[in-house]
Design a protein that fits this description.
The structure is a homodimer of 159-residue chains.
Chain A: H1 5-42, H2 46-53, H3 63-70, H4 74-86, E1 90-94, E2 102-106, H5 108-130, H6 134-158
Antiparallel strand pairs in A: 1-2
Helix pairs in contact in A: 3-4
Chain B binds a DNA duplex (30 and 30 nucleotides) through helix 4.
Chain lengths: 159, 159
DNA sequence: ATATATTGTTCATACTATGAATAAAAATCA
DNA sequence: TGATTTTTATTCATAGTATGAACAATATAT
């Protein structure tokens, strides 16, 4: 009666492991497709979209700030800002307090586009929730949070 | 008593929307970090890791097969296979049935590495589950599945 | 005043990926 | 059978994502 207990338990865990592996992979792929879609929709490389999104709530950012927020090298930010300035979506002025620093901000075009993109992103996430029943929504968030912290914990041990 | 009902409801939804947006972004970032870690650990660009993983359960694959499974252009696969052949992890023979086709398979080195990588990937996903209580595991999977299908549904309408 | 640290740029390099052009072989059909 | 079309894979030009070393200019600390 108890003979297979250990084995059965492991079988369940193995099954769940394969399942979570697949589910996470599918979700991540879905997110990548969304990024690709946004890129096309707004006619901007995704890295540049992420750049614009940094200015939600912040008026001025320096290259260093942006590099930190995006978690990329400063040289990458230099390039991205240059591209976005060519597209007249960003502008920069010299910091009157420190001649090394450039203060980067959205142009009015950039501001408008950033708002559009933000609205779009919020909208599709809201659609996600609306696909579920109100009770499901709450639970989905709770378990997603559980999963997220589990992921962070596992990650910590890795690095 | 009923005056603020609609407003309160929207406030909840807005809050949940911001929350799910953030949670998904954090999870995706976590997954990206994991890819980066794997790349370093196994000393292979991640695209090449994905290539090797295609051979779990399949002995021979053609360039076309691989392109379909990876969802990339054939020319990309040609390049990746060439790289992996230089590293002696993949090998190819001509299909005796069709002179256009190359049958690609793992070398014994490649086979060993692919097994190692698979073990690693399974292991970290199992660790994820082990961070949770058994009941939580089941629920997390259920709601992850709910979320995944919601994401697919939203995606369908997009494209 | 000098040494050190910070900020941002340029450049070489590597990885991910696409799509057009092409060559070779196979399948179709006339 | 011979001509046409399709399929398979490669090469090449191009673009996007990203890093890190070397550097110049400026600020800070000693």
């Amino acid at each position: 009666m108890n003979k297979n207990h250990g084995k059965t338990k492991n079988e369940l865990l193995d099954y769940q492991t394969e399942r979570i592996k697949l589910l996470i992979a599918e979700m991540v792929e879905c997110c990548e497709d969304r990024k690709f879609y946004e890129s096309r929709k707004f006619d901007l490389p995704y890295a540049e979209i992420k750049c614009l999104m940094l200015f939600n709530g912040e008026h001025y950012l320096t290259v260093k700030d942006m590099a930190q927020k995006l978690d990329v090298a400063k040289s990458r930010v230099t390039k991205l800002v240059k591209n976005l300035m060519n597209k007249e979506l960003l502008q920069q002025i010299n910091d009157p307090m420190d001649a090394r620093v450039r203060l980067i901000s959205l142009t009015s075009n950039g501001s408008e586009l950033a708002r559009e993109i933000d609205t779009f992103q919020t909208d599709i996430h809201q659609q996600l929730l609306l696909k579920m029943e109100p009770t499901e929504r709450k639970n989905a968030l709770v378990y997603l949070e559980t999963l997220r912290s589990a992921m962070e914990e596992v990650k910590e041990k890795l690095v």
